[in-house]
Amino acid sequence: MDESNLMDKITALCKRRGLIFQGSEIYGGLANTYDYGPAGTELLRNIRNLWWDYFVHKRSDVVGLDASVISHQEIWRASGHTAGFADAMVDCKNCRLRMRADHLIEEKIKKKVEGKSLQELEEIISSNKDVICPNCGKHDWTSVRKFNLLFPVNLGIIEGDQSLAYLRGETAQGMFINFKNIVDSSRVKLPFGIAQIGKSFRNEITPGNSVFRTLEFEQAELEYFFDSEEQDWKKLFDAWKNTMWDFVTKALNINENNLRWREHSDEERSFYSKRTEDLEYKFPFGFKELWGLAYRTDYDLKQHGKFSNKDLSIVDPTGKKITPHVIEPAVGINRLLLMILSDSYTEEKDRIVLKLSSKIAPYKVAVFPLLANKPELVKKAEEIYKSLKENFVTVFDGRGNIGKRYFAQDEIGTPFCITVDFETLEDNAVTVRDRDTMNQKRIKIENLVAYLQKKLV
Ligand code: GAP
Fold first, then answer.
1. What residues are in contact with ligand 1 under a 6 Å CB criterion?
2. Residue 269, pLDDT score
3. pLDDT tens digits, 189-198
4. Which atom of ligand 1 is nearest to the CA of 213?
5. Ligand 1 centroid from CA 262, angstroms
6. Closest ligand 1 atom number to CA of residue 202
7. 115 CA to middle of ligand 1, Å?
8. I want to staple 396 with a disulfide (CB 3.0 to 4.6 A). Which of 57, 153, 167, 385 is the partner?
9. How far is the CA of 219 from the centre of ligand 1 (A)?
10. According to the 3-state scheme, what is the secondary structure of the chain?
11. Given ligand 1 and candidates 65, 200, 248, which is best to mutate, with the most ligand atoms within 8 Å of its CB?
């Protein structure tokens, strides 16, 4: 497959087939925001459900949480985000384009600059005349400044510090501030995890790789609490690496050759972490972070204990007082979706196919009447559609010719298409076409559900 412009091809497919649209499009678009159409919404939901099933329902040591998006300013002071959660930015003085300094340097002179100070970044930019503005081509930059990523919100009608809250910058803090609530109200005992899927918000300036990095995104995070005197964090860390790898390669069926681990250097690592490794995926724009794994120690519980003046330690059955340590796998659902689209996008001679696993395909089955202007075929197809809907997420399509309908379903990864033709009215059988092999089989209507159930594992 020709890999050039793969991202453009995926973006065009997403718009054409109702997966992803530019946010606020009819008003000219709002940068770094996206809306998900009918097929995209189903795909997101399937990824989210699969993650939840794998990390919560299938385990006996993880419980769920759904915490508030709008959160007390003290949470973010305690966690260190109001002071430390910032990117270094520069503005082009000529055309006013604002960019992350590290992205600009990486893009223009292919130099990794994680952990460099503002002054060091500024020196690199000013001394390299190749670091030109990607928009207007000038080398005329402002100084490098820090830009906090948290979104402030003013509550009520009085503006000022008293009414200041934040849209959460990560779901993780919800787990720390509810730690005691969960210990006191559920039957958890160490080691255990608290998992959450929900929206997070960051005022990001991004180079625009579709939903890879957006202002608003969905995180799936898990805080795994353990007694650091009882368990070796390095072993636990490695066990989580294996679990994450298995989820991506086995549950999501992603090609292992497009994945790798990368450990953060001391300069790059977040202030709260003792070790961080990223599971990276080879996106069309290069290997980038998919999923982070961090050993956050007892940093967060201790900080919240201090700032809230509440004791967030627990007492184990022997009477020992413990402030648990934490290992955190944190991934974005939207980033998983972009990985899945990149990995499954396939160009064949006469068609484009999303080779999605049937578990996450937006629709499992599509039903068509061979001809849309023959009422007896439409009626029969509608009957079959209605009965299949009871068992599978099914879509009906009566537009255009049969070839176009196959083409459209292939592009959103529907595993099976069912055509009702004139013979159906005689023999009570339909043609079932397999997305990947394009083989067609005649199946009796009475056996259809059992046939599809067997195939859609
Ligand atoms: N609690 C730790 C934490 O939030 P992170 O590396 O900043 O760590 C975790 O975020 C994951 O969330 C990332 O690996 C990525 O998958 C996703 N993510 C982070 N920022 C994002 C953004 N602006 N847009 C989309 N996904 C994002």
1. 170, 172, 202, 204, 213-214, 217, 219, 221, 289-292, 328, 330-332, 334-335
2. 87
3. 999 999 999 9
4. 24
5. 15
6. 23
7. 18
8. 385
9. 7
10. CCCCCHHHHHHHHHHHCCCEEECCHHHCCCCCCEEECHHHHHHHHHHHHHHHHHHHHCCCCEEECCCCCEEEHHHHHHHCHHHHCEEEEEEECCCCCEEEHHHHHHHHHCCCCCCCCHHHHHHHHHHCCCCCCCCCCCCCECCCEEEECCEEEECCCCCCHHHEEEECCCCHHHHHHCHHHHHHHCCCCCCEEEEEEEEEECCCCCCCCHHHCCCEEEEEEEEEEECCCCCCHHHHHHHHHHHHHHHHHHHCCCCHHHEEEEECCCCCCCCCCCEEEEEEEEECCEEEEEEEEEEEECHHHHHHHHHHCCCCCEECCCCCEECCEEEEEEEEHHHHHHHHHHHHEEECCCCEEECCCCCCCCCCEEEEECCCCCHHHHHHHHHHHHHHHCCCCEEECCCCCHHHHHHHHHHCCCCEEEEECHHHHHHCEEEEEECCCCCEEEEEHHHHHHHHHHHCC
11. 200
User: How far away, in angstroms, is 382 Cα from ligand 1 center?
Assistant: 43
pLDDT mean over 321-346: 98
Pocket test for ligand 1, best of 289, 326, 333 (most atoms within 8 A of CB): 289
Residue 306 has pLDDT above 70, yes or no: yes
Atom of ligand 1 nearest to the CA of 221: 1
Atom of ligand 1 nearest to the CA of 330: 9
Mean pLDDT across the chain, nearest whole number?
Answer: 94
For residue 215, the ligand 1 atom closest to its alpha carbon is 23
In terms of pTM, does the model score above 0.85? yes
| Residue 198 CA to ligand 1 centre (angstroms) | 12
For 64-103, the pLDDT digits (tens) are 999 999 999 999 999 999 988 888 999 989 888 888 999 8
Residue 4 has pLDDT above 70, yes or no: no
Percent of the chain with pLDDT over 70: 98
Query: Is the per-residue pLDDT at 157 higher than 80?
Result: no
Question: How confident is the model over 271-281, as a mean pLDDT?
Answer: 94
| Whether residue 346 has pLDDT greater than 90 | yes
Is 80 exceeded by the pLDDT of residue 451? Answer: yes
Best of 170, 203, 259, 274 for a ligand 1 pocket test (most atoms within 8 Å of beta carbon):
170
